[in-house]
Amino acid sequence: MGDRDDLRKFISDLAVVHGRVVLSSGREADWYVDLRRVTLHHQAAPLVGRVLLDLTADWEFDAVGGLTLGADPVALSMLHAAAATERPLDAFVVRKEGKAHGLQRRIEGPEVSGHRVLAVEDTSTTGGSVLTAVEALREAGAEVVGVAVIVDRGAGDAVQAAGLAYRAAYTLADLGLVA
């Protein structure tokens, strides 16, 4: 099996949780995809980086990140996967709100102003989190080349309606799940 098949197995085995849950969008579901069980796993995290780098290989970007917390391990997996191939790629973290102390930065990490960046998320239902990150990145002067997620729960239309290219490594159908 290749990276993509291996990652799909980790998602199915570790991340898909059955039972009634309330999503961050406020919607209720009979199952949940808890991708932190994958993005923070010692064997699966490297796969996340390689699969998403492959997914976005034709996009040019200098840095990757998104709204904390879901995007953080995704961006770091991509940063480490890129480093293994000697591709220069930085990562950043977008805070939900700017800090009131220190440097009062909303985006942590290397400077994004004037750079091409990729916004990422582990999974997205409405696109709200990643679009919040995109807004902050644009306000900071970054050029957002697109959005990439590990699992799409339905956010593609909203992200594309906002004028952004959108890619998901897996759809719900790929995982044998029904929305």
Task: Kindly name the structural category.
Answer: alpha/beta
H/E element order: HEEHHEHEEEHEHE
Tell me the radius of gyration: 16 Å
Number of helices: 6
Strand order of the largest sheet: 5-4-3-6-7-8
Task: Compute the average pLDDT.
Answer: 93
Helix content, binned percent: 25-40%
Note the beta-strand portion: 25-35%
Principal-axis shape equals globular
The tally of strands reads 8
Task: Give the helices and strands, then pairings.
Elements: H1 3-15, E1 16-22, E2 28-33, H2 36-39, H3 44-55, E3 63-67, H4 72-84, E4 90-94, E5 107-108, E6 116-124, H5 128-139, E7 143-152, H6 156-161, E8 166-171
Parallel strand pairs: 3-4, 3-6, 6-7, 7-8
Antiparallel strand pairs: 1-2, 4-5
Helix pairs in contact: 1-3, 3-4
Description:
Helix 6 links the parallel strand 7 (143-152) and strand 8. The chain is α/β, with parallel strands linked by helices. The chain has a six-stranded mixed beta sheet with strand order 5-4-3-6-7-8, sandwiched between helices. It is built from six helices and eight strands.
Keywords:
single chain, 179 residues, alpha/beta, 6 helices, 8 strands, 28% strand, globular
In short:
It is built from six helices and eight strands; from the N terminus they run αββααβαβββαβαβ. With 179 residues, the protein is of the alpha/beta class. It is globular, with a radius of gyration of 16 Å.
